[in-house]
């Protein structure tokens, strides 16, 4: 039973953390850039 | 002779889980159209061409796509490849976990029960002991299933795969997906296993093959103890399958800018520095390839903890697991390469200056692929323990704390195995405080089988056992997703399918229908584009893949550094360098371009006038909203 409860606890905590993260990410994004040139990337 | 055998859940469920993870991860990328992001450029009806100039980075992957696109539409092919990566990777990681593989198996790959069964194998059960054995056997099957599914999910849902996918490096990921199969083949030996297992990497090209070689050779070397032929066979297969890119690379006059080390070294993508990021399978050089939201401290911490425990679990596998030592060596070597670029870049710069062939080492993070496999298998083993039925076997807490026990994974000397073992001992002590009776199934089950042991103190009944096995198992399987949740749905829209504007097809039809020779110059003079119709996602200029003639483009790269500086890495193609010099000069552009064999000039974007004003006398062949095509 303890193991089940521990699994539930871990699962719920991680699910909450994951939900918070996704909500943070799925925020309205700005208009895409209209640039013909772009860096390969930024560190 | 049996032609059909029963489909077993331990084989099918990991495949389904990997596929489901793939669908969830790709999301909107599976819609109609093409997924265009960084290095991932697919075009409709790609021509079969051989690259000229520069390092053959897309060989033979582009040629394979061009050939297959004759059979399957390129857009469908792209989705099939992307989903196939998930399927191949997940099933491969699962295939490395089996009851036999976690136990000693003979070097010829025979399974226990085929004339090589250990002498202490369980005897056929009878009576109540047999019933109990059957029950524990089913529970063990469930635990094994959980382990395989967990390994599969971990291997396809981690920062490494996500970041490389967001950098568009599907060709590298072919090698990543084939890696567990390559390890299995190297371990078991034989051409018939080795060649098919290495084919995905061979199709992927140089990065995929380098990662595969880094992994396969140590595994084969360990498996080949006393049998050099096994190692030679692996070497020969790797060498032959590398020829498609190695020959043009050696023949090309490409040069590598040592400053690329500064741009492409692994970097910290979370709160734990570069080393911590790498241990959590992240650390890619490009911040734009990070999974959105991945740097949140709670997620980064969870991924690092899971990764470290998975490595410890893998390292504690019994030494007779055939791929254990080799894979550990490969993972360590990969980590060292990645750390070298990050902490002592001067070493790599010197090497590249001495011989440009060391250039591929500058993007060191890609070599932690074997570490991902180590963690996936280790995570599977941990999940197997989590989901195993509770044991009645009494191993005294003090003995466990000392690392004692009779299990396969914890020999009498486990306590003396060093820091990792001591860490696990401490963690176990915490576990004992919490649950008082967490024992590895690998410790329990064999003895239960042999002895047909009855239920012990506190063991749940069948219903309780079901919940007790399934719930922790489900949590374990979902854990990789929960610690990197925003990889879902194309990393929340970072990957999405779009359609090319009609201009692209029209221009390609004109140029590819012209039989007269001459190269095409793609302008503006930059390798990357960020089209509005592609949602502003950065992508390699699609012109580099779409024409059945030499395309000259600026293969130099611009990378923004942490200090705000822009680092420009010189291009590798000598012709590209000459054209770049002509563009910089004040002289007549038309004459200079014709002098180096340019026939067409393709201008994308809104600033075509910048170039058209310098191309007096050029014939306007096509003008659309997106593209302008000129003939010199």
TrEMBL record, chain A:
Domain of life: Bacteria
Protein name per its UniProtKB record: Uncharacterized protein
UniProtKB/TrEMBL annotation, chain B:
The keyword tRNA-binding is annotated on this UniProt entry: no
Endoplasmic reticulum in keyword set: no
Transmembrane segments: 76-97, 170-191, 197-223, 230-251, 296-315, 327-344, 364-382, 467-489
Record's keyword terms, sorted: Membrane, Transmembrane, Transmembrane helix
Residue ranges, annotated region (Disordered): 107-134, 389-414
Source organism, top-level taxon: Bacteria
Protein name: Uncharacterized protein
Origin organism lineage: Bacteria, Bacillati, Actinomycetota, Actinomycetes, Streptosporangiales
């Amino acid at each position: 039973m303890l193991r089940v409860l521990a699994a539930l606890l871990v699962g719920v905590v991680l699910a909450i953390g994951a939900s918070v993260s996704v909500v943070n990410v799925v925020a309205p994004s700005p208009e895409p850039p209209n640039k013909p040139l772009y860096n390969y990337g930024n560190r | 002779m049996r032609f059909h055998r029963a489909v077993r859940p331990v084989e099918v469920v990991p495949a389904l889980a990997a596929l489901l993870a793939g669908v969830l991860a790709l999301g909107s990328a599976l819609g109609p159209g093409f997924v265009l992001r960084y290095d991932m450029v697919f075009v409709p009806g790609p021509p079969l061409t051989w690259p000229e100039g520069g390092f053959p980075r897309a060989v033979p992957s582009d040629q394979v796509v061009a050939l297959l696109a004759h059979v399957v539409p390129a857009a469908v092919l792209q989705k099939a490849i992307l989903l196939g990566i998930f399927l191949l990777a997940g099933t491969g990681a699962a295939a490395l976990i089996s009851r036999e593989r976690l136990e000693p198996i003979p070097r010829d790959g025979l399974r226990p029960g085929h004339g090589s069964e250990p002498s202490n194998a369980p005897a056929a059960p009878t009576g109540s002991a047999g019933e109990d054995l059957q029950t524990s056997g089913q529970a063990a099957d469930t635990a094994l299933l959980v382990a395989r599914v967990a390994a599969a999910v971990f291997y396809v849902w981690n920062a490494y795969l996500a970041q490389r996918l967001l950098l568009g490096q599907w060709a590298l990921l072919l090698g990543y997906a084939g890696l567990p199969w390559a390890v299995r083949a190297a371990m078991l030996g034989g051409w018939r296993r080795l060649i098919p297992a290495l084919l995905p990497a061979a199709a992927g090209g140089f990065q995929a093959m380098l990662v595969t070689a880094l992994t396969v050779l140590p595994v084969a070397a360990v498996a080949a103890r006393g049998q050099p032929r096994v190692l030679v066979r692996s070497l020969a297969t790797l060498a032959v399958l590398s020829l498609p890119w190695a020959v043009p690379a050696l023949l090309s006059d490409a040069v590598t800018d040592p400053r690329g080390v500064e741009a492409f070294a692994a970097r910290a993508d979370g709160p734990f520095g570069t080393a911590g990021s790498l241990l959590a399978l992240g650390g890619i050089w490009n911040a734009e390839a990070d999974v959105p939201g991945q740097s949140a401290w709670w997620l980064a911490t969870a991924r690092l903890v899971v990764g470290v425990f998975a490595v410890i679990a893998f390292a504690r596998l019994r030494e007779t697991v055939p791929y254990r030592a080799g894979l550990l060596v490969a993972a360590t070597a990969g980590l060292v390469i990645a750390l070298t670029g990050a902490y002592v870049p001067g070493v790599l710069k010197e090497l590249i200056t001495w011989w440009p062939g060391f250039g591929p080492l500058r993007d060191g993070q890609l070599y932690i692929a074997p570490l991902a496999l180590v963690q996936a298998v280790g995570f599977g083993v941990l999940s197997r323990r989590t989901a195993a039925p509770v044991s009645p076997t009494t191993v005294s807490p003090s003995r466990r704390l000392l690392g004692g026990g009779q299990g396969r994974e914890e020999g009498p000397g486990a306590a003396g195995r060093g820091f990792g073992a001591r860490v696990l001992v401490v963690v176990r002590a915490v576990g004992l405080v919490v649950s008082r009776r967490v024992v590895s199934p690998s410790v329990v089950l064999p003895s239960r089988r042999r002895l047909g042991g009855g239920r012990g103190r506190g063991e749940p009944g069948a219903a309780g056992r079901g919940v007790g096995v399934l719930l922790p198992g489900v949590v374990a399987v979902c854990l990789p997703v929960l610690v990197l949740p925003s990889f879902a749905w194309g990393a929340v829209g970072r990957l999405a399918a779009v359609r090319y504007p009609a201009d692209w097809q029209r221009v390609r039809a004109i140029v590819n229908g012209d039989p007269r020779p001459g190269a095409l110059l793609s302008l503006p003079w930059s390798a990357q584009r960020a089209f509005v119709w592609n949602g502003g996602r950065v992508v390699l200029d699609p012109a580099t893949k779409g024409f059945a003639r030499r395309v000259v483009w600026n293969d130099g790269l611009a990378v923004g550094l942490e200090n705000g500086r822009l680092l420009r890495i010189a291009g590798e193609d000598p012709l590209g360098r000459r054209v770049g010099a002509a563009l910089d000069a004040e002289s007549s552009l038309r004459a200079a371009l014709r002098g180096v064999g340019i026939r067409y000039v393709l201008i994308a974007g809104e600033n075509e006038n910048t170039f058209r004003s310098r191309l007096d006398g050029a014939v306007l062949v096509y003008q659309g909203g997106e593209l302008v095509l000129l003939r010199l």
